[in-house]
Amino acid sequence: xxxxxxxxxxxxxxxxxxxxxxxxxxxxxxxxxxxxxxxxxxxxxxxxxxxxxxxxxxxxxxxxxxxxxxxxxxxxxxxxxxxxxxxxxxxxxxxxxxxxxxxxxxxxxxxxxxxxxxxxxxxxxxxxxxxxxxxxxxxxxxxxxxxxxxxxxxxxxxxxxxxxxxxxxxxxxxxxxxxxxxxxxxxxxxxxxxxxxxxxxxxxxxxxxxxxxxxxxxxxxxxxxxxxxxxxxxxxxxxxxxxxxxxxxxxxxxxxxxxxxxxxxxxxxxxxxxxxxxxxxxxxxxxxxxxxxxxxxxxxxxxxxxxxxxxxxxxxxx
Length: 318
Fold this sequence. Notes:
50% of the residues lie in helices and 22% in strands. It is an alpha/beta fold. Strand 1 (60-63) and strand 2 (66-69) form a beta hairpin. The longest helix is centred in the first third of the chain and has 29 residues, at 71-99. Mean pLDDT is 88; it is low at 1-6 and 314-318.
């Protein structure tokens, strides 16, 4: 029998057949090895015969004194033990990975959660999960969705529910968009204003791709039949911080997340003006690919954020 043929036929060896050889050597008896493998003795014998057929040589010597290995059998036995040990090591490492709570999380969030919510949440999370590291990027909502879809990050957090069927979206924190004006504005004494007054006032808008802008625009169209083209837009800016500075500087009024202006409202640097018959609410969503398998440390973080929404809600009430 040619060597090349033997090499090719070695591919047909199975782990069970190699284990049969290992147990046979350790027990030095076909009956005891079969019992240990929970096989019948004929089944064990068949496994050994298949090994010998694949090699084209005998691997064991059978005698009244017991079982011994041929030179070829000794070589195969040594390699079989290594292969079985490698399989066990692989199983152990996989098990350890599944049980391991630590790890890195690559997260991207839109401006509001990235700036005003997640830093507080991450600080609280770190107190009980020091072995989990979080790497946070900030982009507008459209870019966050694209980064999740392109696998540039593992999890996203945005201010609107995505339409893509490739994404799973889990709602977390509540948010409310409010009209803000600077100190000394004439509307502060008035108390509330109508939509018609708002459209006539110089208005500072977030950039395209911002969920804050999308939610505000959709609400006005659906509930008030008013488009952005009817507003007196005096500027578009790329972040909530820039919008706040512009409003405080007197450029115009704007609508922002209540999370974004909490400090400024408390210190009377900005003022909230109710819009008659308008309550603009939304939910932030955690998003990840439907095909993305959350590991244990991802699940721990996601579950924490779902709980943290209640903690944050309580903080807001005080």
